[in-house]
Recover the amino acids of this structure.
């Protein structure tokens, strides 16, 4: 079974994905981590030295490879859905969950994480909250196109989100 987790940065995809994979005793893969390992540099360094387009090309390669798995929980970078070929690939998952959170929650999670500068570079020149708002508006339809189920993560712990998603996954299998 392939379970995909999509959503904006800071919605809990990596943390929840690890919990789910552990409980299901299947592999967990994070697309951003796969990109970092392949490139040998952080996401911020890729953005700075080669630009977003190069990052998105690497992301598409990783997406194609990760979708070749037979069983895994896959956590996708927030912008993976920007390319149609990635959306089509992710739609091949057995089930895809869109993890959502409000702009304020995302802002606080991102800025409360010491790894954000390395893992979550600014995508625009906008102030951080406006960047979140603008990107969410732009990406909403793409996330919706790929997902089978939506869950708001604002007021739930990662364990609660994982438990809820596991219940939905069991219904699908």
């Amino acid at each position: 079974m392939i379970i995909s987790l999509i959503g904006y940065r800071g919605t809990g995809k990596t943390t929840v994905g690890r919990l789910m994979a552990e409980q299901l005793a299947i592999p967990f893969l994070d697309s951003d981590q796969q990109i970092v390992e392949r490139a040998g540099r952080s996401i911020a360094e890729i953005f700075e030295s080669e630009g977003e387009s190069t990052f998105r090309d690497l992301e598409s390669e990783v997406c194609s490879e990760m979708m070749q798995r037979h069983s895994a929980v896959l956590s996708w970078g927030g912008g993976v859905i920007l390319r149609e070929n990635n959306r089509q690939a992710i739609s091949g998952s057995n089930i895809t969950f869109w993890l959502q959170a409000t702009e304020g929650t995302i802002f606080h999670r991102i800025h409360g994480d010491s790894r954000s500068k390395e893992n979550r570079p600014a995508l625009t020149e906008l102030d951080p909250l406006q960047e979140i708002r603008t990107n969410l508006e732009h990406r909403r339809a793409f996330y919706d196109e790929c997902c089978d189920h939506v869950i708001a993560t604002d007021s739930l712990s990662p364990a609660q989100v994982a438990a809820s998603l596991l219940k939905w996954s069991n219904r699908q299998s």
About this structure: The beta strands are 2-6, 28-30, 72-75, 95-100, 149-152. The CA atoms of residues 24 and 146 lie 23 Å apart. The mean pLDDT is 91. The longest strand covers residues 95-100.
